[in-house]
Amino acid sequence: MSRRIILSMHTSLDGFVAGPNGEMDWIKVDNELFDHVGQLTDEADTALYGRVTYQ
Hints:
The chain is mainly alpha-helical. The termini are far apart. 31% of the residues lie in helices and 0% in strands.
């Protein structure tokens, strides 16, 4: 049986994850995105988060 690895990450079109001061206020989570991520999480066996995201 094979398994898939799925990466879900907020990234701007120019490849940045955070602003110059570490801010992530540009990320807009609407209901559609929230539902999509929830479905991925519900179907996953394991979720791996970075230290800052987890905290």
